[in-house]
Amino acid sequence: MEKYAGTEPFIQDKVTRVPTDKQLLDMLEKGRISAAVMILNDALNVVLNNPGHYQNIGIANPYLETLNLFYYINKKNVNLYEKVTSGIETVVDNGYAQKTCDDAILKHKEILRKLIIE
Length: 118
Hints:
Layout: E1 3-6, E2 15-18, H1 21-29, E3 35-36, H2 40-48, H3 81-93, H4 96-117
Antiparallel strand pairs: 1-2, 1-3
Helix pairs in contact: 2-4
């Protein structure tokens, strides 16, 4: 996924393409840009792999967008389509998928909070 940075968010001629997540967060930390739009896990991975850095930035809520995820099945496994679909629908309908996602995000937020506080 391409990374973009800007000094004035959402003004197209003020947006710059950035090659890496780390460079994007470095620019934000140094105040060279006012905002960065990233996938949460990408940002957290950079922060976790660079302890002691990124003390002056935080995650804005609510998120800008939630992405729909799709699954694909190789045609040699098309006979599993109904079973896979049923399994996915079950974990979505009973709330397990959302709970798993929420737990993962909470875990990352706790790790990020500890890194920022320490």
